[in-house]
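lol ok so funny story. i was supposed to be doing the assay writeup but got distracted and ended up predicting the structure for this chain instead. priorities right. anyway since i did it might as well share w the group, maybe its usefull for someone
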Amino acid sequence: MARDRFEKYGVQDLEIRLKVRRSESGRENHVGPSDEVADIMVGDMDDTDGYRDIVIDSHVKGLERISDIHPKLMALQYPLLFPHGSDGFHKNIPYGKVDEKSTKKREYITQKDYYSYKFQVRTNEAITPRLGGRLYQQYVVDTFSTIEQARLWWFRTNQTTLRSELYMQQNFQDAIAVFRHIGHPDIFLTMTTNPLWDEVIQMMKLLPHCLPQNSPDVMARVFRLKLDQLIDDIKKKNYFGTCLGVMYVVEFQKHGLPHVHMLIWLDSASKLNLQANVDKFVSAEILNPETDPVGYAVVNAFMVNGPCGQENPKSPCMKQFKCTRHFPKKFCNSTTFDQSGFPIYRRRQSKITVTKGKTNMDNQWVVPYNRDLLVKYQCHMNVEICAHARSLKYLLKYCLKGHDRATVEIRGKKRQSNNGKGLDIGEDEIQSFFDGRYICGCEAAYRIFGFNIHYRSLAVQRLSIHLDENKYCTFRSNEALPKVAEREKEKHTQLGAFFILNATDEHAIQFLYDEIPQHYVWNDKDRIRNPRKRGKKIGRLSYTHHSAGELWFLRLLLTKVRGATSYESLRTVKGQTYNTFQEACKEYGLLDDDNEWHMVLLQCSESGFPPQIRQLFVHVMVNCKVSDLEDLWKKHWTTMVDDLLL
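and the output, tada:
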């Protein structure tokens, strides 16, 4: 209780500081130069209580606890934004009937629905909350924190563990499956919000006395419009050529502005055209102000890095007296690719410069860009060619690194004596470190509106594998196991439906298990597969570690054997049925000599990172029988040292 803490410690001044240090997940939490209101959601990965402890002092009842969905909560929390004390969200607001054909089953709106509605700009409504400036930012962040806290609590009370890191790992492996199907991406693009976009300025005219930086909902909506327009230019209008697929992730990262990391796949003809005309699509030079004044202006405004280094050692990009982005770059008369496959763009030495502060900057400081896209979108837009990049997994890891997090330090302030010297507080001085999720106003608004954070145009279907009589099923903890077993007994799994399909459809026997989703659609209700009539989907087998034994050998057979109609059929080789999948693999020649260990390392290298591959190699070397260890090393050492050579 607050009273007990007050009696024990008295009144103590506390301060909160963001710290640059490694979080519990191993990633380093950076602190960037940003002036924004944000929330640190501590304990978002733990089994913490899903409710806030809110106490009010009522004139009638005295001290009273209220729910975090109390209609008056926001009016009490933000009296300046809601001076009339009007009601906010409560759980009994019904959906309005737009038409009689509506298929909505929910009777009442959710918190997310309510605030998505409230954050829209309407000319017939007052804008009093928006006049709060930074307080309005806090209100936006606070509303999302309430929504997210309730959502996470629901997940914790409806499943055993909450595994958001598993979700990102699944997305990573899905993207690797796309790589295996259509090859590596050709273009890596990053776009950052411009707070002075014309659309933002025009919207501000409808909100007098409001500033763009204090309107995160407006920024989120305009960014989303620009992002959709960019996707349309790439996919439908084929700006870079015929587009086979797009994947992007939207991030915020303590900069207060949303930005997107995007990977783009092109068809074969467009790949060749891109590689033959790199300088046509990507430039790293300052344009001539006389022949292209518009291009010169946008490059000057958005695509010049720095100054940093000796000119500005306190620049945010500086670390240990070096620029983390490796600026300034070296001059180069033509575009080439280094040994790792990364492009070295043309940066000719010329007299054309731009001025930043007191520093004249030349082509060595230009971030690669596409001229036409830069002029059209009027924002920072970095375009990179990655058609030859060797470390594609690092490119994906950069795009799928999960929520932004921060480490905060809470400690007591030292009291000052009359002469200005600090007084010792004693050994019980408050000092605690917390690792939590960092949520800024733009991210809060972006997620409340329900915009996609992760998008992939090529769908991937995750195919389950299991041993016979070991089907996976879901059930509630209070359900009787005999009832669960009876319910699941007649249900076909994806693997079981694959066997049935091969037994009944002659056309299906020519495909492997992971090729089936390209030609057949999974009907989850009837648990069967029907011929695909439109669309495209890629199949991916669930990852299985070699230590899983028979399950791993089953997976290996499914990637090699076509037309299997049962588990027994998979174990049958040349008319003879073997007792185990391992024996069948050996008879197929998949385990001859050291093939088994080559397959293990190859499978791990497809979706794992060098530290994981090295660890697996050591495990195989120490605990398994390898006949030719030198050959195993020579064929796989390059995948183990990618992180050391870069």
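The two ends are 53 Å apart (CA to CA). Residues 422-431 have pLDDT under 50 and may be disordered.
back to the writeup now i swear
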